[in-house]
């Protein structure tokens, strides 16, 4: 396993990070989830990402139980705040009230005294940014989180947040966007701005919800038990835009010879592609089975030559998303 600095901070995280969005507490039962976490630890992964909203809090609970007994200083635990966690009007967003209540809930479910990174899950257009950042400053000063990050923020939002964080004296070090060889919307604006500001990307969906594994074939039903068939956990909704596009699926199949030439699985090739971007500190992988963790971790330490990356880009360019406007947060509610 290789480790990278998170932004300009002194914190190093495993370049492959284990995340439990959709899986833990939903698609995967607790025993299987624990087996996946153990596989991640055995593979050298030290960084684990979750959120208070995943499976209505169950994902944090399952992760906390799976990590129980690990040396706390030897691992990094990340969580997030923004999405609704209850029926009340203040049970969502980035108000001071919701942040302060949510951090306590996350710590309790995870069974830890602090988070290594606490992230704003989206930008909140209903709350003054100053209020949000002051609350995060107090979270850091109280020792409940060591660093602060954001997720799916636009370049101008990241810049405004970083200016306030610097004024208030706390470390805003990361952004967590979707990024893969099929979803490249952060390249035009977010990555250049982040480089300038000393902020890293911790990217989710590096294998495009499983599409880049090559297991989804054009003109054929999705494999049984795959994310595209997960109606209960919501996985089918997230993957639908690619799984139903035969042009995308056909082009992904063209990557198989590239992966074979490198001795990598398709999944590992996709993760390695993401990690060629120097502004990416880590790629978040998820798994429903331990062997998927082992497969994805093949990407650790792999360096793709420029010509290999160019071949991948050439294949996928006609179907890859690149518009920066696709990075959006929910608007103000009516």
From TrEMBL:
Residues 15-316 form the NADP-dependent oxidoreductase domain. GO terms for molecular function: oxidoreductase activity. InterPro entries: K_chnl_volt-dep_bsu_KCNAB-rel (IPR005399), NAD(P)_OxRdtase_dom_sf (IPR036812), NADP_OxRdtase_dom (IPR023210). The keyword RNA-binding does not apply. Keywords: NADP, Oxidoreductase. Belongs to the shaker potassium channel beta subunit family. This is Aldo/keto reductase. It comes from Modestobacter muralis.
